[in-house]
Amino acid sequence: MSASDRSRKSGDAGKGDDSGIIGGKAPATDQTIDAGSFSPDQLMQKIVAQSIAEDDSSDWPRIALENIDAERPLLPFFDAGVMLRIDSPVPDDSFFYLRRGEVEIRNHVGDSIATGMSSGVVRIRGRAGAGSGVCMSGGTLAIYQSAGVRVGAAMTGGGIFVRGDVGPQCGFASTAGTIIVGGNAGKDLGARSRGAAFFVRGEVESLGPDIVEAPNRKQAQLRLSVLLMNASISGKPTEFKRFIHKDELAAEKASFGEVSPSWR
Amino acid sequence: MNIDDDIRAGGLDLCFWTEPPLGDQPTVAPEHQPAAGRCTTFLHHVDFSGVPEKTMATLDYFLRAIDVQIFYRGDVPPVDDPSSAKSSGAGPSGPDSSGPDSALPGERYLSIFGERFGITADDLQRVGGIDFRLLRHRRSDHSPGYDASTRSVDVGGHADIEFALPLPAEVVTMGDLPTFVHRWRRLFPPPVKLVATISVSNLVQGLASLLPCQFDAVIVDANQDALSGLPVAAMVRRLRRQLDAAGSQATKLWVIPPPMSIQSLAKLSVLGADGIAVDHLIAENVQSLLHSSGQQQGGFASLLDEFRGLLRFAADRPVGHNALASTDPKVASILGLPYFGVGMNVPAENP
C-alpha cells in the first residue's frame, strides 16, 4: 500500500481543522461550570446534583466544563446521568472507572483515559495517549484521531473505536469486547488476547501470537455497525478486516451453518 | 499485650499470613470451632461469606493460635448490622454509600494483578490499600469473580487463571512503573497505602525501577523462586539498604520467605524485614494442630512462644547494627556480617 493510500485510509487524514481537532459544531449546553473554582469532590457533587436517573440520555442535562486543572485527573469514578462537554485538553487518568454519563471532549486527552469504564460513552475529538480504555468492561470509547500504545489492554467488555491509527499492542490481554481501528494498527495487535474482536480498516504492522484474520461475516458486521453507530460514525462494515484468536475462529467454523440453526 | 504490640514497639510491623488456605481444608475438632464470620486477612481482602463453615473455623483457629494480624468479627462490622458499619467510619466513597456492600469497612486492602480482572469502581472507591501483585502466579481463589465450582474466573470472557500479567496492563516495561505509581498516587492520595508484591526474579530485573516508586511497602515473595534461606537473607539486607539509599526509608519491607526455621525468620527481622510471612510455619504445624493429642499441640504452643521470644529479641536490635554475626566466613561475607571464627576478623560494618 502506498503512502497516499495509507493516508487516505487513515481516519485522521484531512478531517481536522487548524488545531487538528476533528468535529463539527459544538452542541448547545444547558449550563457551564468553572471546574477550576471547585475541589474535585465539590465538582462531582455539583454535577451529580444535575443528574437525571433516566436511562435515556436524550433527556440528560448538557453541561460544559471550563477551566480544567491540567495536573489532576478529571472526575474519577464519575457516575451521573448528564452529558458533559469539555473543550480544553484533558489530563491523564481522567474519567477513571467511569460508571455512567456521556462525555464529549473536543480536544486532545492524556494517557489512560476512561480506564476501567463500565458504562457510558466517552467521545474524544482529538488524540488520545497510551492506555486508552485499559481494563474497561463496558460502554463505548470513541477516539476521533489516533491513540497510543496498548489501547484497550485487558478490556473485558465494551467497545473502542479509534478513527485514526493505534500504537503497538492494541487490545493486549483483552478477554472480550470489540476494538475498531479506522486507520492502521501497530505491532502485536491483540497480543495475549483471547475473546476480543478487532476490526481494522487500514494495515496491521503485525499480529499478536495466535491472532488470525477471520471472515467478516454478517453477524460480525452487525456487531460492528452497532459500535459505529454508538460512536456516531458513519462507516461501512465491509471495509474492515476482522481479527480474532485462532481458537475462536475454529469454534466459529465448527458451529457455522446448520449445526446451530437460527430459531427463526 | 499481645505479640503484635510487642513487635511493633520494637520496629517489626507484623507477622502475616499471605495465603490462608481457603480450599480443601481438613476439619477441626468441634471443641476448637469458633464462630464463622467475615474476616479480612492482612492485605488480601477475601469475602469469606462463601467459604464453608468448617474451613472458616479452621482458619480462625490457626489465626488465633499464632496471633496473625487479622481483623475479626469484633473489628469488622458484620454484614447484617448496618449501624455498626456507620459507626466504624467510611472510606473515600463517603458515609452515605449504599448497596449490599455498604456494611463493609471503609479500610480495605485490594490485591490486584496486572489485568485487574473483576475489579470494579466500588472496590477502588472504598479502598484503604492497594497491593499491586507483580507476580506471574495468580491465586485464583483470591480473584474477584472466582467460581470455586468451575475453577474459573468470570471476567466476561476467557481468562488464564493460572498466569497473570506481571505488570499492570498499561505498563509496558518495568521502567514505566514509577510513572504509573505516581499517577495512581494522584488518584489515591494518603492515607491509602500503595504496596507492591514482587517475586525475587522480577525484583532482580526491575530493582532500578522499583526503588523510585515510593511504595508504602514492598512485599518480596521469595517463596516463588525456590530459593534457600541464605540468598533470601542477603536479598533482604541489600534491598533494605538500597531502599534507604534511594530515599525510601519509609517504605516497609515485608518478606514471604521459603520454609525456614523460626530462628532464621527472626534473623530476617534484624537484617531489615519489617514484616515476615508465617505461612510455612503454620502449614508445617497444621496436621499436628488438627489431629494431634494435647501434648503435640502443647509442642506447637512452645514453638510459638520461642518464636515470639526471638522476634522480641530481634525487634530490640536496630537494623544496620552488628546484632548478628556468623561463624562461617562465606555467610558473613554474603550478608555483610561480622565474622566470629578461626582467625577472627571482625569487619567494621557500614551502617
Q: What is the radius of gyration of chain A computed over CA atoms, rounded to a whole number of angstroms?
A: 19 Å
Mean pLDDT of chain B: 65
Output the strand order for the largest sheet of chain A. Answer: 1-2-3-4-5-6-7-8-9-11-10
Largest interface: A-B, 37 and 21 residues
Into which percentage range does the β-strand content of chain B fall?
5-15%
Along the chain, the helix and strand elements of chain A come as: HEHEEEEEEEEEHEH
Distance between the termini of chain B: 32 Å
> What would you call the shape of chain B?
globular
**Shape call of chain A:** elongated
Q: What does the radius of gyration of chain B come to?
A: 21 Å
Unreliable spans of chain B are 1-13, 22-51, 65-106, 140-144
How many DSSP-defined strands of chain B?
A: 11
Percent range for β-strand residues of chain A:
15-25%
Distance from N terminus to C terminus of chain A (CA atoms, Å) equals 43 Å
List the SSEs and their pairings.
The complex is a heterodimer of chains A (264) and B (351).
Chain A: H1 3-9, E1 31-34, H2 40-50, E2 62-66, E3 79-86, E4 100-105, E5 121-124, E6 140-143, E7 156-162, E8 176-181, E9 197-200, E10 211-214, H3 218-230, E11 241-245, H4 246-255
Chain B: H1 3-10, E1 14-16, E2 40-41, H2 53-66, E3 70-71, H3 82-87, E4 109-112, H4 121-125, E5 129-134, E6 146-147, E7 152-153, H5 177-187, E8 193-199, H6 200-210, E9 217-221, H7 229-245, E10 252-256, H8 262-271, E11 275-277, H9 279-284, H10 286-291, H11 294-315, H12 329-335
Parallel strand pairs in B: 1-11, 4-5, 5-8, 8-9, 9-10, 10-11
Antiparallel strand pairs in B: 2-3, 6-7
Helix pairs in contact in B: 1-11, 7-8, 8-11
Would you mind describing this structure in some detail?
The complex is a heterodimer of chains A (264) and B (351). The termini of chain A are far apart. Chain A is 16% helix and 22% strand. The relative contact order of chain A is 0.10. Chain A has four helices and eleven strands. The model of chain A is unreliable at 1-18 (pLDDT under 50). Chain A has helices at 3-9, 40-50, 218-230, 246-255, and strands at residues 31-34, 62-66, 79-86, 100-105, 121-124, 140-143, 156-162, 176-181, 197-200, 211-214, 241-245. An eleven-stranded mixed beta sheet of chain A has the order 1-2-3-4-5-6-7-8-9-11-10. Chain A is of the alpha/beta class and 264 residues long. Chain B is α/β, with parallel strands linked by helices. Chain B is built from twelve helices and eleven strands. In chain B, the strands form three sheets. In chain B, strands 1-11-10-9-8-5-4 form a seven-stranded parallel beta sheet. Chain B has a two-stranded antiparallel sheet with strand order 2-3. In chain B, strands 6-7 form a two-stranded antiparallel ribbon. In chain B, helix 8 links the parallel strand 10 (252-256) and strand 11. The longest helix of chain B is centred in the C-terminal third of the chain and has 22 residues, at 294-315. Chain B is globular. Chain B starts with a helix and ends in a 16-residue tail after the last helix. The relative contact order of chain B is 0.11. Classes of the chains: A alpha/beta (264), B alpha/beta (351). The interface between A and B is medium-sized, with 37 and 21 residues.
